[in-house]
Design a protein that fits this description.
By secondary structure, the chain is an alpha+beta fold. It contains 26 helices and 14 strands.
């Protein structure tokens, strides 16, 4: 097209940013947009819009030296009906983009000069880290960076971004892990209280075993927190000594062996393994109460094992129920017949029959519960169709299923209390566990030997758990201002009869011991020591050695002054009336508010209430199998697996906070 007589049009109506790179000219009645970089001519008519002009700018080779990466303006999109490109100040761009997802990544100084794009710049290194973080955050496979579709997407989105290899993105993930680990290390180092650590086993798709260690604690703001510390590849055939050494190495690597309060294991973790770790820590006098509160077993894991015992006892019955439900659902005719009979016998239940999910034991409970509600319907259906309903249950089987299903109902309800609590602190477990204890005692009295033998089997597992954990549970409930010692005085006589008072005294002795041990290291005790120091420093010739020799005297003076003078924190706390019970009570907030009044007791509360009596994740609560690594990451090296899993937990925790 001959443009010799064309006229350049300067109009205030040209609002789109693309006109910074085009001249709009008029030749006759035709408007043409001429690229200022390559001189290519495109339609400049107002009816053509600006999308084709933006697309050209992205591909314009001569403009590539000046940059192509620009942001879409919502204002232009709304005004023109399509996305428009807009240049934004780089610092502002970072703030706005990161704030959208509340991402607070530390921006690093990059030695290499960023690629200049007009007033913008492409930060190659930061973009690589963003990609690595995305992979970590969402369990994406590392190999995605070499997928053809991903490469095409990135190239079209940002041609200046230099695509990375599998090895490079793996190295970036490990680098992120190292930096995030340092942050977590500093958090743990500055904690005002102790740390409890849970130990879990994971398996990979190739059956490789991993040991996971997770720290649980209450921070300075009285918020319950947790962080994964390690995910280590272990050999299940190794001895307990070797496994205990692995755990101790991890604890010392994080420098938290001196801050450890308790460890939480599965119900049936080897005693030898636990004892070896406890002995190592006790040698350095790191544990309170001579390690009596160190060994804690997972309550939900115990419930899962007892539920599995119940389901094993119903194995044949459960299979018959599945077959009965399959028959009912096999055709429209049988379904209609079943519904007709349900109306005839006036079944009140509105629940539908369903087959259970073998991977979730609570779904089996729900299947049995609904079947029991339709017991009469199944009996009538057998009379109508005796040939196809030959696998229906006998009356004895129905009765036993009813009793055992009531066991499962209790286990489901208690598990939900533990895993769905808004404030899952250690104090909520005691009354629920006591109720299960009382129920097991009653179940063992059942006249049906089949039922009573099952109850005895479950009670044996429960008592193993109770022997290890009852003391910690009792101390935790004492620290609940709604209950204090009263809940023990309510439950223990029901559990132990005449021996109750003696056992309550044992709990109180442990509480006193905890109080005395915490008082030695509390700021209150330290200020008293400093207040008494003038007596020592005023003696001629007295020096550091003399003060050290009188440390025992200072402790004695502190303890006797407490007994002779005003009441201690503990005495004041127990003497005051109970706090009213309400649904939304937040015990951590209560202790945060009352720390000035009970400075020593609040230290105990911080350490005790932070113990995770259950270590099962909410999404795995009713699982019949163990925890399994993501398929995308299972085949990676153990070092990379640990870097990805730990980094994911740390980054997600930061986002949630």
């Amino acid at each position: 097209m001959d443009m010799s007589d064309a006229v350049v049009v300067n109009s205030s109506r040209l609002k789109s940013i693309v006109w910074n790179d085009f001249d709009r000219v008029k030749k006759g009645d035709t408007f043409v947009a001429i690229c200022r970089h390559c001189k290519k001519k495109l339609s400049g008519s107002s009816t053509s819009g600006t999308s084709h002009l933006r697309n050209h700018l992205i591909r314009c080779q001569r403009r590539s030296n000046n940059g192509t990466a620009q942001y879409f303006s919502a204002r232009e999109k709304k005004k023109e009906g399509s996305l428009a490109l807009v240049t934004i100040d780089q610092a502002q761009k970072k703030d706005e983009v990161l704030s959208l997802v509340n991402l607070r990544y530390e921006q690093e100084q990059i030695k290499n000069d960023p690629v200049s794009i007009g007033s913008n710049s492409l930060d190659q290194r930061r973009s690589q880290f963003d990609l690595a973080r995305m992979i970590i955050l969402h369990n994406y496979p590392l190999a995605m960076v070499e997928h053809v579709g991903f490469k095409i997407f990135v190239r079209n989105l940002q041609p200046l971004f230099e695509l990375v290899t599998y090895n490079k993105v793996e190295a970036d993930c490990v680098e992120i892990y190292a930096k995030e680990k340092q942050k977590v290390y500093e958090i743990l180092d500055k904690l005002p209280g102790k740390i409890s650590v849970t130990a879990d086993m994971w398996t990979a798709s190739d059956d490789a075993a991993y040991l996971s260690l997770t720290a649980h604690y209450i921070d300075e703001d009285w918020q319950l927190k947790k962080r994964i510390l390690n995910l280590i590849n272990v050999d299940p055939s190794h001895t307990d000594d070797m496994h205990s050494e692995v755990i101790m190495t991890c604890l010392m690597d994080w420098d938290i062996d001196r801050k450890l309060f308790s460890m939480i294991f599965d119900s049936f973790t080897s005693e030898n393994l636990v004892d070896r770790i406890r002995d190592r820590l006790s040698q350095n006098r790191f544990l309170y109460c001579n390690g009596q509160l160190f060994d804690v077993r997972c309550a939900v894991d115990l419930l899962n094992h007892m539920a599995q015992d119940s389901l094993d006892a119903l194995c044949e019955v459960t299979q018959k129920i599945r077959e009965s439900i399959r028959y009912v659902k096999s055709s429209e005719a049988t379904r209609a017949m079943f519904n007709e009979l349900a109306c005839k016998v006036q079944v009140e239940s509105k629940k539908c029959l369903c087959i259970d999910n073998l991977l979730k034991w609570n779904s089996t409970y729900f299947m049995l519960e609904v079947a029991l509600e339709h017991r009469k319907v199944f009996s009538h259906l057998r009379d109508r169709d005796p040939v196809n309903m030959k696998f229906l249950l006998s009356d004895l089987e129905w009765d036993r299923m009813s009793v055992i299903t009531s066991f499962l109902k209790l286990f489901v309800e208690v598990t939900n209390v533990f895993t769905r609590s808004k404030y899952p602190t250690a104090n909520i477990f005691f009354p629920e566990i006591c109720d299960i204890h009382l129920q097991l005692i009653e179940w063992c009295k059942n006249p049906d030997e089949y039922i009573s033998s099952l109850a005895v089997k479950m009670r044996k597992k429960f008592e193993d758990y109770w022997d290890k954990c009852s003391l910690g549970l009792a101390v935790a409930t004492m620290l609940d201002p709604r209950f204090k010692m009263k809940l023990l005085e309510y439950y223990y006589p029901q559990l132990y009869g005449d021996s109750a008072s003696e056992l309550i005294d044992d709990v109180f002795v442990c509480i006193k011991s905890l109080y005395n041990e915490h008082s030695i290291v509390s700021p209150l005790a330290s200020s008293l020591d400093q207040g008494l120091g003038w007596q020592v420093s005023g003696i001629p010739g007295s020096g550091k050695d003399s003060r050290d020799r009188l440390m025992g005297f200072d402790k004695f003076l502190y303890e006797t002054s407490q007994s002779e003078g005003s009441n201690s924190d503990l005495d004041k706390y127990l003497e005051e009336p109970l706090f009213p019970r309400n649904v939304d009570f937040n015990i951590l907030n209560w202790w945060k508010v009352h720390t000035p009044r009970y400075p020593i007791l609040s230290m105990i509360a911080r350490n005790i209430l932070g113990i995770p009596i259950s270590k099962v994740a909410a999404e795995s609560t009713f699982d019949t199998g163990g925890r399994v690594l993501d398929l995308n990451w299972s085949s990676l090296s153990p070092t990379t697996v640990q870097a990805l899993m730990c980094s994911q937990d740390w980054i997600r925790s930061e986002l949630e906070s």
